[in-house]
């Protein structure tokens, strides 16, 4: 996260201070949940990391689940899901750009992988977020593959709906393997190979 | 898990009783870890489920991590990773058989998904198991794809090593999506599509 030089300087005073406090809490929670999971990481761990009492922390985030959602939305602002940046960027370009970017932020990928699977456990407050996220991702890639099919650029026989689910699945799964053995797993190469199999050259 | 009628009846006496006790503890831990994760599920939860004190449980499994490894090995005995059952079964047949079987055991798939991702968190006793498992799976599918390449049945341009990592990744990722939305995700269809893309018909 860098400061945008085109932006006006942040406002001073109590509001700006409160916002910075919130940001530092969310950044600390991001580290704690990536290292220990949501269930394994306590509010006390987060409070300790920002040098604040748990009572003060609860003033900013009344429940641990509020902090989880703030962390997930921070993640969304860091990674952009490989959705096309503008109309001139192709599906393949945007996936490759995002995959290369992800290799620079293993902590963010770990957080996502850990919380996503953990959300399958009983009464986890992250389940709706991940379920909706998958539906949105599949819809987005379905539209991209359907548009390619209209242009005659989807390999004959490829089903756009299953291809969308497959791309999302492959991406998730290869990230897990890469986190465990980054020197053995060619994350971007596997994604590129798949896209080259299903998308015909212009 | 069914009883094999071809097997001799289990031995009676203290050894058989102890073995049954271990089995019921591992089955209970399987449920607890699938529902709450390894960190979120306590030894007390497991002890309560089998109606035993935590002290008695520790007689069978001295540490929680021993119980985790026993649960992972039980999982291995339930699912067989889609490796060919015998020489006459092709790669495609064995993957499809295993994928169809997995749809009948969502609890086992959930356990695997939750523990695998959780093993990425700090000092998790399951990390070596999963890291080694991925290496073994990639090697196994690499051999299968390399053999198909030797027969001229791998699509030209497909790299057997990346295809092996891709198949494993797709399988993991599609299981996660399927656990969240079984009615929306065609797990076996996505795996079949991928194999049909890379493996040429005989």
Automatic annotation (TrEMBL), chains A, B:
Keywords of this entry: DNA-binding, Repressor, Transcription, Transcription regulation
InterPro entries: BetI_C, Homeodomain-like_sf, HTH-type_TetR-like_transc_reg, HTH_TetR, Tet_transcr_reg_TetR-rel_C_sf
Residue ranges of every copy of the HTH tetR-type domain listed in the record: 19-79
Domain of life: Bacteria
Chain residues forming the annotated DNA-binding region: 42-61
Spans annotated as Disordered: 1-20
Protein name: TetR/AcrR family transcriptional regulator
Organism of provenance: Arthrobacter livingstonensis
């Amino acid at each position: 996260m860098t400061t945008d030089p085109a932006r006006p300087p942040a406002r001073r005073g109590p509001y700006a201070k409160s916002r910075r406090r919130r940001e530092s809490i969310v950044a600390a929670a991001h580290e704690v949940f990536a290292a220990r999971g949501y269930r394994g990481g306590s509010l006390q761990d987060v409070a300790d990391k920002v040098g604040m009492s748990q009572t003060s922390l609860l003033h900013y985030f009344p429940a641990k689940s509020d902090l989880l959602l703030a962390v997930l939305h921070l993640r969304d602002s860091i990674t952009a899901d490989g959705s096309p940046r503008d109309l001139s960027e192709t599906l393949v370009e945007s996936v490759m750009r995002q995959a290369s970017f992800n290799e620079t932020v293993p902590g963010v990928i770990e957080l996502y992988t850990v919380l996503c699977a953990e959300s399958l456990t009983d009464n986890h407050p992250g389940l709706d977020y991940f379920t909706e996220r998958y539906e949105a991702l599949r819809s987005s890639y379905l539209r991209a593959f359907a548009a390619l099919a209209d242009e005659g650029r989807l390999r004959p026989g490829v089903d756009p709906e299953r291809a969308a689910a497959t791309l999302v699945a492959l991406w998730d799964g290869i990230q897990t393997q890469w986190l465990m053995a980054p020197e053995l797993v060619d994350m971007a190469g596997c994604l590129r190979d798949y896209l080259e199999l299903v998308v015909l050259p212009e």
